[in-house]
C-alpha cells in the first residue's frame, strides 16, 4: 500500500530523516516507534505532503506521491490524525466529519445555491455516513455537540472518525493515545482492531505507548536520530538489543 524508499529530509544542516526505507502492506497495522526527536512525525509529514523530501521516493498504492500537496494525497486515499488535536472546536461533531467528505461531494455551486435534488441527496448521504461512523465509535449521542466542549479522549476518537470519513486506503495515526488515561487507551486498542475488521485499509501508527504498539502491530519499524534502527515483528523488536539501547541507554 505504501513504499518509502531512501527518503531523506534536511532542515539546513539538520538531517531529520536519513535514508529511511519502509513498507506498509495492504490491510496490516505497522508501527513507527523511537525516542523523542527520532524523526517519526517528520516522516509522517513527508508521507502526507506537509514536507517534500530532499531525496528518495514515496508511492501510495503504486502511485508516486512525493512532492504532491496534502489535499491531493488525501484525495488519493491517505488520511491522518495529528499529535495535537486538530478539530474545528466550535463546529459540532457531525459537521467535523462531513468536512472530511468534501472531495467526494460532486454537487456544484448552483446545486448548493438552489438546494437541488442532487445537493439534497448528497447532503443526506453525507450525514448518514457520518452518523454511521459515530455509531460505530459509540459517539452518536454527541453528534450535535461542539467538538471542543468534549472530553479529551472523545476528541481523539472524533479525529479518528473524521479520518475514516473519507474512506481512506491508508490511515496514519500520529500518537493517538497521547494524553489518554488507561481506560481510554484500552478502548483505543479495541477500536483499532474493530476498524481493521470492518474496513479494508492499512494503518501506520506513531505511538509511545509500547503496550498498545505491541498488541496491535503486525510489524514495527524503529527510528533513532532520523535513521532506521530496526524492523521486525513485535517479538523481534521487544528483544532487540539495539532498540533497548536506544530507549533505555542499555539493558
Descriptive notes:
This protein has 251 residues and is of the alpha/beta class. 39% of the residues lie in helices and 24% in strands. It has ten helices and ten strands. It has helices spanning 40-47, 70-75, 93-99, 109-114, 117-136, 152-165, 182-198, 210-216, 234-238, 241-248, and strands spanning 2-11, 14-24, 29-33, 55-60, 63-64, 78-80, 170-174, 202-206, 219-224, 227-232. Strands 6-7-8-3-9-10 form a six-stranded mixed β-sheet, with helices on both faces. A four-stranded antiparallel β-sheet has the order 2-1-4-5, covered by helices on one side. α3 crosses α5 (117-136), α3 (93-99) packs parallel to α6 and α5 packs across α6 (152-165). The model has no long low-confidence stretch (mean pLDDT 91).
Amino acid at each position: 500500500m505504501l513504499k518509502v524508499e531512501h527518503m531523506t529530509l534536511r532542515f539546513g544542516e539538520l538531517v531529520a530523516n536519513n535514508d529511511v526505507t519502509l513498507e506498509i502492506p495492504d490491510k496490516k497495522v505497522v508501527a513507527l516507534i523511537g525516542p523523542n526527536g527520532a524523526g517519526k512525525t517528520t516522516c509522517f509529514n513527508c508521507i502526507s505532503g506537509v514536507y517534500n523530501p530532499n531525496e528518495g521516493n514515496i508511492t501510495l498504492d503504486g502511485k508516486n506521491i512525493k512532492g504532491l500537496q496534502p489535499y491531493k494525497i488525501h484525495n488519493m486515499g491517505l488520511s491522518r490524525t495529528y499529535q495535537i488535536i486538530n478539530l474545528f472546536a466550535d463546529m459540532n461533531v457531525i459537521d467535523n466529519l462531513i468536512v472530511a467528505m468534501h472531495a467526494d461531494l460532486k454537487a456544484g455551486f448552483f446545486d448548493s445555491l438552489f438546494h437541488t435534488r442532487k445537493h439534497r441527496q448528497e447532503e443526506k448521504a453525507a450525514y448518514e455516513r457520518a452518523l454511521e461512523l459515530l455509531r460505530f465509535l459509540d459517539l452518536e449521542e454527541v453528534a450535535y455537540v461542539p467538538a471542543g466542549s468534549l472530553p479529551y479522549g472523545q476528541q481523539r476518537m472524533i479525529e479518528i472518525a473524521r479520518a475514516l470519513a473519507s474512506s481512506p486506503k491508508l490511515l496514519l495515526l500520529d500518537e493517538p493515545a497521547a494524553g489518554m488515561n488507561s481506560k481510554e487507551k484500552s478502548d483505543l486498542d479495541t477500536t483499532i482492531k474493530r476498524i481493521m475488521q470492518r474496513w479494508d485499509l492499512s494503518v501506520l501508527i506513531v505511538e509511545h505507548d509500547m503496550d498498545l504498539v505491541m498488541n496491535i502491530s503486525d510489524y514495527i519499524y524503529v527510528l533513532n536520530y532520523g535513521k532506521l534502527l530496526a524492523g521486525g515483528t513485535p517479538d523481534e523488536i521487544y528483544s532487540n538489543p539495539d532498540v533497548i539501547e536506544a530507549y533505555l541507554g542499555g539493558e
